[in-house]
Amino acid sequence: MLRLSLDKTSGEIKVLEGLVKTASARTLRLSLFSGGIAAQLASGESLTISAKPAGQTEADVLFSCTLTSADYSTTEALYLKTFTAYTTAALALLDLSDSNAKTDQASLVVDGYMSFTASGGDPVEYDQTYELTLAAVKALPSDGTPLALPGPLDWLVAHATRYLPAVTGLTGGGVTKLDGLGTVGVTPPVLIELVISDVSSKWLLKSGTDAVDGVGSIRPADYNASTNAKYWFQID
User: Fold this and answer.
1) Measured distance CA(231)–CA(213) in Å, rounded
2) Is the peptide bond before 220 cis (omega within 30 degrees of 0)?
């Protein structure tokens, strides 16, 4: 998110949050003041926020966002604007435009600029330059496919009983219920032990479509007869 504060009279710009990711639908939040007092843009006035590579005033703009009076949020008493930092210039600066993943940059500090345009006038750039962090979120094919993070049951070893103290119920979904534990990608058999209301029980994750929810057998929330046919069977 990009959060800035500007005093139109003094030209003072404060960066409240300066992380911009190379993705679409980034959010700009701007607090506007005049002489230290909260202010708004008049009809026909606009503010443009942009960024360039650090120390390169003549370089291409990496991204830009223009605010008008229509972008003012009366609920939050500031300006809100959605913009994109997923631009050719931004990706090139982070070295994401080629197939060499070894040179990719995770993030870089860039220079931010702000200009004001009065109704019918020319843009006037504020003297102050401020620092923003441009971070990469684009995954290129050359970078390989990221590995999915394992779920709780992925760590269970087949045929080994594992005690899960976080599970406090059988049904109802969520990480505290047996049926809420994710089973997609988990290979049966998996044996677990639960203690619910001081009563111990053991459950075995089995493959099959013949289970019906009830005493002694429970289908997980991610059960699918075609793609994830598994169920929990009580053995003790």
Assistant:
1) 9
2) no
**Which structure tokens are listed for 63?**
């991204």
Q: Which long-range contacts (CB under 8 A, 24 or more apart) does 210-217 make?
A: 213/171
Domains recognised in the chain with CATH numbers: 2-143 (2.60.40), 152-234 (no CATH)
CB environment 84-113: b (16+ within 10 A), e (fewer): ebbbebbbebbebeeeeeeebeeebebbbb
Beta strands in 103-170 (DSSP E): 107-117, 123-125, 130-135, 161-163
User: Model-level pTM?
Assistant: 0.55
Please state, in angstroms and rounded to a whole number, the distance separating the CA atoms of residues 112 and 134. Answer: 11
Residue 51 φ then ψ, to 5°: -140, 150
At residue 196, the 3 state secondary structure works out as strand
DSSP strand pairing (13-21 vs 130-135):
parallel
Count of residues for the chain? 236
pLDDT in tens, the chain (236 residues): 789 998 888 888 999 999 998 887 888 999 998 888 898 998 999 999 999 999 987 888 999 999 999 999 999 999 999 988 888 888 888 888 777 777 888 899 999 999 999 888 888 888 889 999 999 885 544 555 555 555 555 544 444 677 788 899 888 888 899 988 988 888 888 888 899 998 899 888 888 887 666 668 889 989 998 999 999 888 87
